[in-house]
Amino acid sequence: MFRMMMRKAGKQSNLFENAIVYYKLDETSGQAIDVINGYNGTLFGGVTQGVTGKIGNAYSFDGSSGYLSSSPTGVYQNYSFHCYCLANDWADGNRRELVALPDDVNGTPINFGIQNGKIGMWRGSASGNVTSSYDVSNLTGFHSLGFSEERTSATNKIVKIYLDGVNVVTINGDWEDIDFSNGNYKIGGDIFLWKGKIDEHFITSDVLTLSQFIELHNNGNGITII
Fold this sequence. Notes:
- The chain has a single domain (about 5-220), classed as Jelly Rolls (Sandwich).
- The chain has one helix and 18 strands.
- Strands 3, 5, 6, 9, 13, 14, 15 and 18 form an eight-stranded antiparallel sheet that branches. Strands 4-7-17-10-11-12 form a six-stranded antiparallel sheet, with no helix packed on it. Strands 1-2 form a two-stranded antiparallel sheet.
- It is globular, with a radius of gyration of 16 Å.
- The chain is mainly β.
């Protein structure tokens, strides 16, 4: 296991200090390399490596069979997710999942992505619990997209969704913790698979702040580990 600190213009940041996994997705063949803790991921189906990304290379997912599976460890009440993503069509009417995370109850995936042109979160394959009405149907190109979850009581979490460094949605609800012993987690979705590109994907046990998501967006330029 090993950890790397991100450096940007000579300045150190703690964005990745408590990262669980970080996939730069720069590879042109083979496994997806986790540069933080070595939880390398296995590719399945229609995933194309070595395409042009937000920073360096990215992976392109075909939306029908392609995803990446990984097996980290640990249970996390509080955590954050972020990546740079490009959907082939943000408003194609389909549900497109960027990430699927096993929960601490029975492993039912906690999913995050886009459905009918709107950012959403779902439990398992349910179609009725989209938690956001924020419209992204007119967006094109790469965008910074992520969320944080902070447990405030046994039955409530504050979930904040961020797009391009802006807190576009805040939700209170009884969301499960993630427990990686209940199953693998998947980049590119579980049942409703992502169609488009994903780059610089990471999960951290920190509850990232607004200023940190602004730093990740970096005026549209993005940042990475160097």
